[in-house]
Each structure stands twice: as structure tokens, then as C-alpha cells.
Amino acid sequence: MWLTGLTAVILGVKLSQTIYSDEPCHAIEVSETVTESQSTIGSVSTFCRYVQNDNNTWTIIHRRFDGTLNFTRTWEDYRDGFGDLQGEYWLGLEKIHQLTQTGPHKLMVVLKDYDDVRMWALYDKFRVLSEVDQYELEVGQFSAGDAEDSLKEHNAMKFSTPDRDNDMWSGNCAELYESGWWFKNCHAVNLNGIYQDETEYDKMMWGKKSLKEAQMMIRVDESSQ
Fold this sequence. Notes:
- This protein is α+β, with helices and mostly antiparallel strands.
- It has helices at residues 2-12, 75-80, 93-100, 173-176, and strands at residues 18-21, 36-41, 44-51, 56-64, 82-83, 89-90, 105-113, 118-123, 127-128, 137-138, 142-145, 189-190, 205-206, 209-220.
């Protein structure tokens, strides 16, 4: 089954080799023995993952799997990025903006809940606008996957952090949920929420599911070029 192979590669496989490149992720040549690579284009360093069943290499912009990294952060932190490319991290809004302004991108989100059920969602035309636009999220149609189509609720939302409130609620969603995200009133998805095994909306969530692992990955949509 395609999903089984896909999520196993993304969330479950130990690396046999990592390569380093000055090419963007989608241009790196891979083989069966190389599942991850690190790409540096100008000032932007990213971690790439080859998805064997999809036969594409994706740029990982967000990764959580054990709760060791604190995601209750300031606007500056979320703008510049934090964490370790080899572990949990948030790539940074400015870097994501720089990557996605080069042309149409797809977004793949891969999730695992506390029952160890794996899910995924694929979205078209993912883009993050500039800091002048408060890093507004643009996300297109849900095109594949067995996770709920929950991210659509956050389309056209500006990014908020506890110290910068850009949501549509009269209060401060980011302060309430102790995280930065594209909050609305407040959220259907929050992949930066508190890491804890409870089905409450202040946790790392997708729809109504509390999550144990999450990754956000992007790649150039060559079909739109």
C-alpha cells in the first residue's frame, strides 16, 4: 500500500547515509541508500528527505517526534527558526518564505497519533508571504491523503506568536495555546502546540487528534511550471 511505504520512509527508517549539497532539495540526485540530505542555498540550510514511493525529494520545514524542543517561542524565534536539522526543528518563517516565493510548491504533512496510527495530507500551492504581510499562509486544495482536510481553515491567516497577535479572535490565540501558528479563531490545526498525550486543543493537534509525531515538507510543483 502506498501510504504504508510512504510513512515508513518518513517517520520510521534509520538513515544509512546522509549527503550534503548546494543544490535545492528537489534537484538532489538520490539512490536507494540515501534517504536524507542537507541542502544549503545562499543563507538557507535545509534538511531534505527522499520519499521512495513518491519518488521525490522534499524539504523538511518542520519536524517533531519526541517533545524535546520547546515551541513556546517569540516572533523573532519563529521568524529566524530554531532547533537542530538532525532533530526537532522549525525552519523559520523567513526561510520558508524565501523558498516558496520561487514558484508553486506542494505541502505534504505526515502525522502519527498516540495510538501509533499514521496519517498524511497533501496540499497544492503552498506559500508563505513576507514579514510585511505577517507571513500570511496561502494553501491550495487538499489533493490526497487519509488525514482530515483541516489545514484549509487556516488559509489566508497571518502568523501569530504570544508576543504578536495577528489572529481574528478578540483574545490572543498564540498566548492561550503557548505556541506560534497561523491562528484564526483559534485553530483546526496546531502542529506547534504543547507536546503531550491529551486530546485537548492546547496540544499538538490535527483536527481532533493529539499527535505524537508531525512533519511538514515542501517541494517544487513541477506540474505548475
